[in-house]
Q: What sequence folds into this?
C-alpha cells in the first residue's frame, strides 16, 4: 500500500519591511511641470538673455519676419527669415528660412539648446506681421530669397564698431600715448618720412 510522504511543517511568513514613498514635489507645488521647466530654463539660460529676446512682454523682442543669425558652438552659423516662433517653455524653438545654393532651406533651432552659442537680430521687419506664422513666404511671390548680403553687411557693421571701440580705448590709454611719443609720432610719421625719401 502506497503512502504519501509526510508534509513539512508550514514556516512562519516572512516580514517584508515597507519604506515610505519619497517626498513628492507635487505635494508642495501646484504645477510641478511648470516648476521643472523653469528650473531647466534657469540652468540653460542663467543670464536670461534668450528668454528676454523672445518674451512677449519685451518691446524689442524678436518677431516673425525678422532676420535672425544663429551661432553654434561648433563654429557653424545659419541666418534666415523667421517664419515661426514656437513658445513651449524649455522647448521654445524658431523656424528660419534662407536660400542656400539656389535652394530654399528651412531649419528649426531650439533657443535653449546647449549647442546654440548665441542668437542675434540682424534686421527688423519694416512692418509688424499680421500673422503668427509666415508660411505664405514659401511661395515664390512672397519669398525674400537669400539673406546672405544682409548678414554680410551686418557683420561688417559689427566689425567696424568693434574696431572703433578698440581704437578709442587704445588712444585714451596712457601706455599707448607714451609708446607713440617714444616712437616720434607713431607709425603714421614713419610712413610720411619714408615717402619723402
A:
Amino acid at each position: 500500500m502506497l503512502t504519501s510522504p509526510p508534509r513539512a511543517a508550514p514556516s512562519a511568513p516572512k516580514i517584508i519591511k515597507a519604506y515610505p514613498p519619497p517626498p513628492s514635489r507635487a505635494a508642495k507645488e501646484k504645477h510641478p511641470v511648470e516648476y521643472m521647466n523653469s528650473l531647466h530654463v534657469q540652468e540653460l539660460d542663467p543670464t536670461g538673455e534668450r528668454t528676454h529676446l523672445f518674451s512677449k512682454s519685451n518691446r524689442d523682442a524678436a518677431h516673425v519676419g525678422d532676420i535672425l543669425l544663429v551661432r553654434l558652438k561648433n563654429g557653424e552659423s545659419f541666418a534666415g527669415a523667421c517664419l515661426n516662433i514656437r513658445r513651449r517653455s524649455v522647448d521654445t524653438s524658431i523656424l528660419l528660412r534662407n536660400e542656400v545654393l539656389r535652394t530654399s532651406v528651412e531649419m528649426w533651432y531650439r533657443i535653449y539648446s546647449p549647442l546654440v552659442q548665441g542668437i542675434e537680430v540682424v534686421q527688423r521687419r519694416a512692418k509688424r506681421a499680421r500673422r503668427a506664422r509666415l508660411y505664405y513666404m514659401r511661395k515664390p511671390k512672397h519669398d525674400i530669397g537669400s539673406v546672405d548680403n544682409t548678414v554680410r553687411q551686418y557683420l561688417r557693421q559689427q566689425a567696424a564698431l568693434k574696431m572703433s571701440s578698440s581704437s578709442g580705448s587704445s588712444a585714451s590709454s596712457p601706455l599707448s600715448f607714451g609708446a607713440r611719443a617714444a616712437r616720434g609720432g607713431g607709425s603714421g610719421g614713419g610712413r610720411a618720412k619714408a615717402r619723402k625719401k
Helices lie at 32-44, 49-53, 148-172, 174-183, 186-196. Residues 172-197 have pLDDT under 50 and may be disordered. Strands lie at 67-72, 77-86, 93-100, 103-110, 116-123. Residues 148-172 form the longest helix (25 residues).
